[in-house]
Write a structure and sequence with these properties.
The structure holds two protein chains of two kinds. By secondary structure, chain A is mainly α. Chain A has two domains: about 1-55, no CATH class; about 80-300, MetI-like (MetI-like fold, Orthogonal Bundle). Helices cover about 75% and strands about 0% of the residues of chain A. In chain A, strands 1-2 form a two-stranded antiparallel ribbon. Chain A starts with a helix and ends in a 7-residue tail after the last helix. Chain B is mainly α. Chain B folds into three domains: about 1-60, no CATH class; about 70-120, no CATH class; about 140-165, no CATH class. Helix content of chain B is about 45%, strand content about 5%. Chain B has helices at about 1-10, 20-25, 40-45, 75-85, 90-100, 110-115, 120, 130-135, 155-165; strands spanning about 60, 135. In chain B, strands 1-2 form a two-stranded parallel sheet. In chain B, helix 2 (about 20-25) crosses helix 3 (about 40-45) and helix 5 (about 90-100) crosses helix 6 (about 110-115). The chains are: A mainly alpha, B mainly alpha. The interface of A and B includes residues 85, 168, 252 and 262 of A.
Chain lengths: ~300, ~170
């Protein structure tokens, strides 16, 4: 008993000394606490990005397909001068924008109803319904949409029942637009809901007191206050579409390749340097997008 | 060649990535014709989808899977023993039906029919040499044309040509 207490004494002293040091230098304490996550972030996350960017300036040997560490701008030259890569990049960015706009338009009324009109039980039910698709695998949801959009699928069956002709949406970019908009919709609803919920009721009353009708209140009070939430949601919908390659693979048609598909093909070739060069395009696009989003106040709404 | 494939593009519904993709596309009525392995045709026929395989007069392309031993294998003798075993008629028959491809060992035929009646003929395992000669098997494109010339397209160029068609 006595022995173990005596043995514990040096530890106690050391502990006290350590806490004195930390108390005197608060920055040291912060550093000790953050060191591990910071190291993980710098080495794993940023390290991977830097490695990607550096390898974009290398090339492969035509015969052995081995990466040669020779500095070259060839990959970027090909990207700029070969029109097919521009077409694929523009298609990816264009569809990501269309999906983002669609989700914003779809999410706003639903989020508004959830945040400001629905009662406790209805709101809880709607939350479950919005989040439920996220409990299932992303692949399962894509395959589900394929059975809906297929030629002999649920959509055409329903259309035929009410006397309308078939639509061929599977294997088209329209089909991709629908599937993407569906898959990322919850990621838009949640931040818009959070932003709508934060608007004090008194603001809306004040607008009405000043003679503002529904439309005017929406335009001058609600929308400006929801904008950061919309932009925050758009970061998710835009970036998730921008980096996808599975939906184009499974739902896309003969002209549906995304940046991600080319990257995947090139990695499999294997031409990692070219894949890396093309993969920097969405990174740069997202960089600009986040800069604009910050100016619109999106980071106060996440 | 590239121009011809581009010209065909309006006829193409999708460039399938997985065999299962093509099978569902046929089942759902999205496509009525496609380039396929015997595996897809047989799976569709087993599911009572009315399809038939033909080799057009232009010929057909083919693909052969291969076993390889790594140059720096730690136990090359073990690997050779594996190769020997995996090439035996019975194992070839089991592998052919399990994976859905034609066996390389023609002696696998009776074993295939024993597991699944008629499967040898379905997979063309008993087809004459002329049949296999009519199929243009995949060769990785390299700059060396094989006839002394070195101006053939390499795999990288082949890949970007494919991207230019499908992209």
């Amino acid at each position: 008993m006595l022995d173990s207490a005596a043995a514990g004494l040096p530890f106690r002293e050391a502990r006290l000394r350590l806490s004195t040091i930390f108390w005197r230098r608060p920055w040291l304490k912060a550093l000790a606490l953050l060191a591990l996550p910071l190291a993980a972030f710098v080495f794993v996350y940023l390290g991977a990005l830097v490695a990607l960017f550096v390898s974009a300036f290398w090339q492969i040997n035509d015969f052995t397909a081995k990466v040669e560490h020779v500095w070259t701008l060839d990959n970027f030259n090909t990207l700029i001068h070969d029109s097919v890569y521009r077409r694929i990049a523009l298609r990816t960015i264009g569809l990501a924008s269309a999906v983002t706009l669609t989700d914003a338009v779809l999410a706003f009324p639903l989020a508004y109803f959830m945040a400001r009109i629905a009662g406790g039980k209805t709101r809880a039910l709607l939350f479950v319904l919005v989040l439920m698709p996220l409990w299932s695998s992303y692949l399962v949801r894509i395959y589900a949409w394929r059975t809906i959009l297929a030629h002999d699928g649920a959509l055409n069956w329903s259309l035929n029942k009410i006397g309308l002709p078939n639509v061929g949406l599977l294997y088209t970019n329209w089909g991709m637009w629908i599937v993407f908009s569906y898959i990322w919709l919850p990621f838009m609803i949640l931040p818009v809901y959070a932003a709508l919920e934060r608007i004090p009721q008194s603001y809306l009353e004040a607008s009405q007191d000043l003679g503002g009708r529904g439309w005017r209140t929406l335009r001058s009070v609600i929308l400006p206050l929801v904008l950061p939430g919309l932009v925050a949601g758009s970061i998710f919908t835009f970036s998730l579409t921008l980096g996808d390659f599975i939906t184009p693979l499974l739902v896309g048609g003969p002209s549906s390749s995304f940046i991600g598909n080319v990257v995947e093909e090139q990695v499999g070739q294997p031409n990692v340097p070219f894949a890396a060069a093309f993969a920097t395009v969405p990174v740069i696009v997202m960089g600009f997008y986040l800069l604009i989003a910050r100016r619109l106040g999106a980071f106060e709404a996440i | 060649m590239i121009a011809l494939l581009k010209e065909q593009k309006p006829l193409v519904k999708t460039y399938w990535s997985f065999a299962s993709d093509e099978i569902t596309a046929f089942k759902n009525g999205d496509v009525t014709m496609g380039a396929a392995w015997p595996y897809q045709t047989l799976t569709l026929q087993a599911d009572k989808v009315p399809v038939k395989e033909i080799i057009p007069k232009e010929g057909a392309t083919g693909w052969a899977d291969t076993w390889m031993i790594a140059k720096k294998a730690k136990h090359p003798n073990c690997a050779y023993l594996w190769m020997k075993w995996v090439s035996t008629p019975k194992v070839q028959a089991e592998q052919a039906l399990g994976f859905g491809e034609t066996p390389a060992n023609t002696k696998a035929c009776p074993f295939m029919d024993k597991i699944q009646a008629g499967s040898c003929a379905q997979y063309h395992a008993n087809a004459p040499g002329a049949y296999f000669k009519s199929i243009k098997f995949w060769k990785t494109p390299v700059t060396d044309c094989g006839n002394g010339k070195k101006n053939c397209i390499d795999y990288g160029q082949w890949q970007s040509a494919w991207t230019r068609i499908t992209g």
